[in-house]
Amino acid sequence: MLLKEPKHLLLRPLPLIIFFTILQLLVALLPNHLNFDEAMWQYIGRNWFRNGLVPYSGGVDNKSPLIFALFGLSDKLFGVNCWFPRIVGTACQSAGIYYVYKIAKHIASDYAAIFSITIYGLSLLWKSTDGTIKQKLPGF
């Protein structure tokens, strides 16, 4: 038996993707400082774009050059900031949520696709907080 497309507004993919995008932006942009990793990527990217020092010439890292290029481009366009790379990351994650929806809809059904983007969107929010919520809960 084929299930019909959901009629309820909350069971549509676009409102859920927008909701998770807004939540992700709030979680990503509230701490208005660079963490240790972001500061390192900013430093390497800034040196690459300002001084022509190519990454990996004096050390080894497991990141691709694209992460350094993103932070270098951010520095070149807006100066030292943390919001531009985080907005780009949120846009990529939102596109990922959409593609998870399309894959799950193709394999299973609309309801399974809505369920999968809900789980995926919530898991992206947890990853963005780096587990700090768990540290504040008593008993853990």
How helix-rich are the residues, as a percent range? 55-70%
Taking the alpha carbons of the first and last residues, their distance comes to 45 Å
What structural class do you assign from the helix and strand content? mainly alpha
Averaged pLDDT, please?
A: 83
Order of helices and strands: HHHHHH
The count of helical stretches stands at 6
Q: Per DSSP, what share of the residues sits in E-state strands of 2 or more residues?
A: under 5%
User: Main β-sheet: number of strands, strand sense, barrel status?
Assistant: none
Total separate domains? 1
Shape: elongated
Task: Count the E strands.
Answer: 0
> What Rg is obtained from the alpha carbons, in whole angstroms?
19 Å
* Low confidence ranges: 131-140
Report the oligomer.
single chain
Word description of this protein:
Helices cover 69% and strands 0% of the residues. The protein contains six helices and no strands. It has one domain (21-128). α2 packs across α3 and α4 packs antiparallel against α5 (110-128). With 140 residues, the chain is an all-alpha fold.
Structural key phrases:
140 residues, disordered C terminus, elongated, 69% helix, 6 helices, mainly alpha
Gist of the model:
The chain has 140 residues and is mainly alpha-helical. It contains 6 helices and no strands.
